[in-house]
Amino acid sequence: MTVTTTLPGVRTAVKTAPVVRRRRLGPGKPIKFGAAIGPVLLLVVWSIGSATGWIDQRVLSAPWTVVTTTGELISDGRLQSNLWTSSQRALVGLGLGIVLGVVLALISGLSRLGEAILDGPIQIKRAIPSLALLPLLILWLGIGESMKVVTILLGVFVPIYIHTHNGLRTIDSKYVELAQTVGLSQREFIRRVVLPGALPGFLLGLRFAVTGAWLSLVVVEQINATSGIGYMMELARTYGQTDIIIVGLVLYGALGLLSDGAVRLIQRRALTWRRTLAS
User: CA spacing 20 to 30 A to 139: which of 14, 38, 201, 213?
Assistant: First the structure.
């Protein structure tokens, strides 16, 4: 590229380097309402399949049938009552699992002795699905609310522990050295260095935990329950009411999607200081 400049009595040509436009690497700019595109496309395919007869109504009820059934369940109060019961179970199990996972991660992450005692058994539990423990939990706790809450807790605390522990152990050692240099106490070290450093790992674990809570809830509510979304679905299976089963599945999926979206929103707000590929 040549640029011509004119000075009083002098005309010169200066060559400059060509302007090269670099292609942006990475996923690109965020898409507005991008999280809704996948579910909407799934709904469109479902609707087209039902309208054209590709999907048998006896196998999978049409979306408009599910909407009508949902309205009927809301009008007679069954949906609200069962949803409230399921939400209580999930929130109690999730809350207890988060507390247990964080406490164990702190003990194991900040103490070699704690890690030697705790990490091995938790890794063993990680390899055993929580649902495989149901026969033992039923023998120990019966079929009441305690068994259901403990099953959800077991599905929650492991991802919280794993990711929080990993976040603790990956804190840059220079921050630990700085804390020692300025003379921070153990409590101040935990508050100013450990907890902020482990926050990204904890929030990632929380995303897995909320999903695990709903997955565990689906199963435990179909074991001699007398209320809840799973109980409503099991009762519908007995009477061959496919539309009510689909309502329950859609509700579980919506609750899981909304829960994950809430955690992702918290993640973005809490980690604004961190620049990543998704930023």
Answer: 213
Nearest to 244, CA basis, from 233, 253, 255: 233
- At residue 252, φ and ψ (nearest 5 deg) are -60, -45
Question: Can you read off the two tokens belonging to residue 65?
Answer: 């049938």
Query: What one-character DSSP code corresponds to residue 133?
Result: G
The more confident residue out of 156 and 20 is 156
User: Which of 271 and 179 is assigned the larger pLDDT?
Assistant: 179
67: Cβ–Cβ under 8 A, 6 or more apart, which residues?
A: none
Taking each helix axis from N to C terminus, what angle separates 229-238 and 195-220, rounded to the nearest 10 degrees? Answer: 30
**pLDDT(169) > 70:** yes
Segment (H or E) for 277: none
Phi-psi region of 10 (alpha: psi -120 to 50; beta: other; left: phi over 0): beta
Cβ pair 3, 16 in contact under 8 A: yes
pLDDT-derived band at 31 (thresholds 50, 70, 90) equals confident
CA distance 144 to 43: 37
Confidence at residue 185, expressed as pLDDT on a 0 to 100 scale: 83
* 3 state DSSP class of 14: strand
Taking only the tens place, the pLDDT of each residue in 171-221 is 878 888 888 888 888 788 888 888 888 888 899 999 999 988 998 888 888
Q: What are 172's two structure tokens?
A: 């840059």
Strand partners, 10: 7
Task: Look at residues 51, 251, 221, 57 and name the one whose alpha carbon lies nearest to residue 145.
Answer: 221
CB within 8 A of 169, min separation 6: which ones? 109
Helix (H) or strand (E) holding 34: none
